[in-house]
Structure formats: C-alpha cells, structure tokens
Request: fold
Amino acid sequence: QVQLMESGGGSVQAGGSLRLSCAYSGNPWRKYCMGWFRQAPGKAREGVATIDANGHASYADSVKGRFTISKDNAKSTLDLQLDALKPEDTAMYYCASPQNTWSPCWPWTEREEAPTYWGQGTQVTVSS
Reply:
C-alpha cells in the first residue's frame, strides 16, 4: 500500500526558513517522479518542485532560488527546504508522486487529471 506522510510545517515570519519532509513507502519510488504541491485558501493547487529518478529538480518560477527539493532513497524521504519565505508562500503543502512514469516530471504537475498519490498535507504559514 502506497503511503506518503508529510511533516515539518509551521509558522514563521517573512524571511525565515522551514524544512518539510515526506516519508514514503509502498511503491518502486526509485523510478518515479516525486514532488511538492501547495494550495492556498481560495486558490488552485500548484506544483512547487519536482525531482526525477536521477535527482534532477524542477521548480515553479515563484520559488526558484528559495526552495530546494531533495530525495534520499536509502531513507525513503523527500524533503523541501524553504528559505527566504514570503507571506504568499502560505499554503497547505502536499507531497505527491504520479501513479505512472513521467519524463520529464514537471508536466505532471500541470495535469490535474493525472493519477497521483497524495500525502495528507502540512500547513506552512508565513507572517509579514
């Protein structure tokens, strides 16, 4: 059974940092894309970052240079380092992986209908 479990959210002031972590199990993750999405109240869900089986990362323009995605296959964890946080980064953040292979990964984030495994989410709140 596929499981994704996020942790590490919280409340910080603008300019601060947080590190999100996702523990995953139950799938041959080594060959699949993995990524982070976020959804703010009243807004559509959006892709934040993806990482492929070779460790190549892609980012939304809004977070480039501030967020870093990483994956540890030995520990079965997917992390997202959030630096230089802004109030507009406030959202529920979700760890996810597509149920099918994608190459490259980023287009998966733009296909709402793509079958995807989701974590339960972790809240990030940034105050000004």
